[in-house]
């Protein structure tokens, strides 16, 4: 394992900048917020650890990129930011997210609530779910994994046409695997920063996707059936678990972060790190490092304390799943408490951050 470490001066400059205007802007922040953000360059800090590399296939090694500090983010002429009349994030579900209507509806509500807390200060709105056929996208069966896949680029065109007037961005979510072009095996998601649209799949986050027992395998499409969307009727969706919800929240907020202009983080362990595979994505934390947190705060204008409190409330509050008692699934009758066990460690981390800010 290799650790990526930067000097105190490098991290301080990446966070604050040496531009007098941006230094002045930083000095005007709340004292508690600065105390937390300054943890980025304290030698003995334990809230924000360094990036660790575990193999040559990890993102930083296989996809060399120039790092983006706060000054570069702030000065980017192509960066999109919410405006007074465009402060809504729209979520468009494509197909079902669960094996029953109620499970699918609750899952979308959980994701909506999480996004509202993470991008605190913006409104998150749900569009009516649509079947795959409504997008008129191309689709195929993957030669390697034998599962259905839909064309990410075609979905982006569909979403662009549906983007409401008050939208900062519109993102599609699906439990169907994606591919960007015929020569690619798959892609977790794809976005157009210029158009403010993105499409993200959670299909590979089910615990059995890579196992020999995966139930989503289908036979090759018969000739003449490559445009028959009936193949998506009753397609397989993984069981909703706490880990699946955590991975979905992580991917959704990471990719929307890109639409705000945040590039892949190379400073500290951070949600905005790139990931090449599921193991690396699982190592990536749910939180933003101080440098990326300052970027997002600059774009939205939230109070860090209020944002952290909203995230804790989302973990603790089950009101996102308002008392739907039972629904038949493949396993029988189930109730739908929000599965947040996988978030408990992060909740403890947020409480530590709040202690620093409110000290």
From TrEMBL:
Q: What Pfam families does this protein map onto? A: Peptidase_M54
Gene3D superfamilies in UniProt: Collagenase (Catalytic Domain)
The cross-references to SUPFAM superfamilies, in alphabetical order and at most eight, read: Metalloproteases ('zincins'), catalytic domain
Transmembrane segments annotated in the record for this chain:
none
Q: Provide this UniProt record's keywords sorted from A to Z.
A: Hydrolase, Metal-binding, Metalloprotease, Protease, Zinc
Q: Which CDD domains match?
A: Peptidase_M54
A molecular function annotated in GO for this UniProt entry is: metal ion binding
Cofactor names from the entry are: Zn(2+)
Q: Which is a GO BP term held by this UniProt record?
A: proteolysis
| Protein family (similarity comment) | Belongs to the peptidase M54 family.
Function as written in the Swiss-Prot or TrEMBL entry: Probable zinc metalloprotease.
Q: Supply the name of the protein.
A: Archaemetzincin-2
Q: Which organism is it from?
A: Puma concolor (Mountain lion)
């Amino acid at each position: 394992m290799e650790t990526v470490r930067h000097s105190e001066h490098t991290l301080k400059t990446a966070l604050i900048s040496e531009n007098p205007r941006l230094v002045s802007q930083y000095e005007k922040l709340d004292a508690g917020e600065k105390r937390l953000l300054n943890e980025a360059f304290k030698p003995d800090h334990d809230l924000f650890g360094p990036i660790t590399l575990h193999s040559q296939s990890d993102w930083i090694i296989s996809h060399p990129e120039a790092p983006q500090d706060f000054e570069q983010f702030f000065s980017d002429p192509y960066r999109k930011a919410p405006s007074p009349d465009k402060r809504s994030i729209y979520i468009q579900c494509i197909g079902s997210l669960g094996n029953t209507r109620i499970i699918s509806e609750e899952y979308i509500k959980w994701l909506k609530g999480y996004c509202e807390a993470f991008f605190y200060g913006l409104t998150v709105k749900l569009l009516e779910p649509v079947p795959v056929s409504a997008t008129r996208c191309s689709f195929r069966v993957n030669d390697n994994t034998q599962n259905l896949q839909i064309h990410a680029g075609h979905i982006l065109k569909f979403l662009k046409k549906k983007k409401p007037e008050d939208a900062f961005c519109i993102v599609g979510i699906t439990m169907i695997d994606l591919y960007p072009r015929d020569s690619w095996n798959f892609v977790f998601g794809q976005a157009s920063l210029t158009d403010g649209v993105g499409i993200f799949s959670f299909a590979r986050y089910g615990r059995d996707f890579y196992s020999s027992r995966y139930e989503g395998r289908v036979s090759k499409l018969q000739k003449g059936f490559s445009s028959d969307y009936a193949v998506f009727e009753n397609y397989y969706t993984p069981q909703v678990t706490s880990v699946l919800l955590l991975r979905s929240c992580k991917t959704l907020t990471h990719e929307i972060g890109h639409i705000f202009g945040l590039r892949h983080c190379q400073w500290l362990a951070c949600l905005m790190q790139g990931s090449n595979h599921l193991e690396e994505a699982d190592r990536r934390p749910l939180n933003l490092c101080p440098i990326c947190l300052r970027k997002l705060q600059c774009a939205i204008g939230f109070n860090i304390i209020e944002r952290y409190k909203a995230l804790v409330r989302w973990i603790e509050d089950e009101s996102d799943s308002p008392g739907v008692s039972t629904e038949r699934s493949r396993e029988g009758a189930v109730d739908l408490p929000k599965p947040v066990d996988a978030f408990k460690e992060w909740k403890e981390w947020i409480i530590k951050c709040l202690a620093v800010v409110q000290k």
